[in-house]
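Format notes (please read before filing issues)

Several people have asked whether sequences and structure tokens are stored in separate files. They are not. Every record keeps both together, in the order shown below: the sequence lines, then the token lines. Line labels are part of the format and must not be stripped during preprocessing.
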Amino acid sequence: MRFIKILLSLIAIIIAIAIAAPFFLEPNDFKDQISSVVEDATGRKLQIQGDLDISIFPWLGLKTGKLNLGNRSGFEGKSFATIDSAQIRVKLVPLLSNKIEMDSLQLNGLNLNLQQLKNGKNNWSDLTAKSGKNNHEKTTTGTAPKIAAIAIGGITIKDATIRFRDANTKQDLKLTQLNLQTGPLELGAAVDISLATQLSAQQPKLQGSVEIITEFKANPFDGTYQLNNSRITTNLKGKTLPAGELKGTLKATIAANLIKQTLQLSKLNLSSDPLNISGDMNVSKIFSSNPAISGLLDVAAFNPKDLFKKLKIDIPAMADDKAMTRASFNTNISGSLQKINLSKLKLILDDSLIQGTFSLITKKHPSVTYNLSLDQIDLDRYLPPAATQVSRFSLIPVAIAATTPAPLFPVDLLRSFDMAGDINAAQLIMNRLKIENIAIKLNQQRGFLKIEPIKGLAYNGNYLGHIRIDARKQHGNTPVISANEQLSNVNIGPVIQTITGKDALTGKGNVSAVLTTRGQSIRALKQTLNGEIKISLADGVLKGIDIVNVIKDTYAKYKNQRATTSTGTGTGKQETPFTNMKVSFQVRNGIMNSNDLIIDSALPRVKGKGTINLNNNTIDYTLRTSLDKSIVELVGMRKELVGVPLRINLNGNLASPSYNVDWLRTIGRVLEKTQKKKLLDSLFGKKKKKSSTTAPATTQTAPAKTETAAERKKRKKREKKEKIKNLLKGLF
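Then the structure lines:
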């Protein structure tokens, strides 16, 4: 509106010259008088530097050379506006009826200098005020005839420059190479407008091109203004723009009613690769501080990865290369600029459909509320790539995640807004666990995100989870993560197979984990992991290890025999059935300590304790059981071994640990139980009882050579080892 008022003032000046000039014999001789007329009308001095060329019939026409309209006092620069040349023609006959019918007005080389000082004073308001005041005075005095009608054949502005400077905002906006072409201008009738210009600005810093093509219709009497079939094309660059540029086309029909304070945008279409947005929008109370809005938006299918790439937003690599490659969106919009409500929301992301409501309160610290439902989503697709490796004897899976230089948690984003809402999903996959009929509540305040409770059905049982991410400022850039998760009455077999990809364990029971950690990398999360994990199962099978077969194999190796290939259970499978299994792990800084493993089965009870080090993926664990009669008979041991304790050691890399039986320890316990007396008699030289039968006389030998103390010590040590060896041979 500011530019239009100024332009109309300039046009009025040129029209005044055109009407006045023919009544002078030689217009160039009366430049000073013409300038005085303009100064009386505007309060500014007009310098006519070029020649004036006039025509009278049938067109009253005027061509000018360079015109210079002076600036307002107190502003930078002597000129407010300069024009290299201008041409205007008015039909003479209609003037007799107080009608103005103009041919197209042409302005070449317009240079307009607009300024606003810190005190709010500008260099154009006095121009329009002066003109309006003079017109009012002339009308009230009756000295000037009223204009019955006015029609302009069009306006053509070529190679114009418009500069606007604001001392308060330090804005310096400059339009160069501006070209404007309009169709005929008639009050109440539509006019075609085409405008193209180069733009540069300082607040924010922008530069590039803008092109506008529209059909403008105005009726000031009822306050209606329309821009029909408008098209705005931009190609701007600037650091404050997303990805540093704004390249796109906006199409719309815009209708405004300034009296009713309404604005309608229909047939809206915004195209900026890869986005294509269409819809309709209504705005009311447009002059208030909080206008009301309503409408419909539709975002056609696009590739989110392409959008992030264009915006120069780095997103971490994902487990699935096809994740985040397809999205579309549509919704109804209502509310105001301070609170935007989205209803009938429909978002498609890859293979997931999300529907519901969403509200955004745009305060200094924005907040979001929502109620969403989705059909199904696989969250694992969006996690960093991971190579999962699991020991065939391991109860706890180990995922070795690919390292990434980017922080795992967007701390600044979490602190930038609050949110609260509910999410319901028919199916959700998380850590490869499939949870159905899941309900999630989320609440976040100032960077403290609570995802609790999480309820759902999982593997014929129930899942209950509580997850918290505390990214508040007191934690710096290393958020604290805590989890309290429970699987109740679940079939653990599908769970383990889903996580590990292997059929390693079956049974039904409960699994719980209460853990805390902190950091921005997988390594840091492992090193600071603390808490407790509990597993309790019934009527299952520990697959991948047959404890009886381990005893047979290690026993055969100990005796230098070939290991048997049959299993102790007789099932032909490497597995250990059990009726009950319980274990808990105390986690301290990434090291899992356990001392209460119990496995009840047809075999003697198995107990275990040891550590699993998640920092270097190693295990040092010991299983303890005893040899019962069936095992002794199956392996072919002496019956004295029945009831003797046995220890199996697992150690090494967690993905593929080695195991062995501590037979030396077992032998020591056997000797203690069954051969203690015999061993003591032999070691301490206790004499045997005399036999009733007289022993035959021994052959007389030559006197033994005298031994030194050192030789005697060595001999006794050698004899002792020989005795023990003979005893062990007797046992096995």
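For reference, the curators noted about this record: The chain is about 20% helix and 45% strand. Confidence is low (pLDDT under 50) at residues 135-144, 387-404, 565-571, 687-702.
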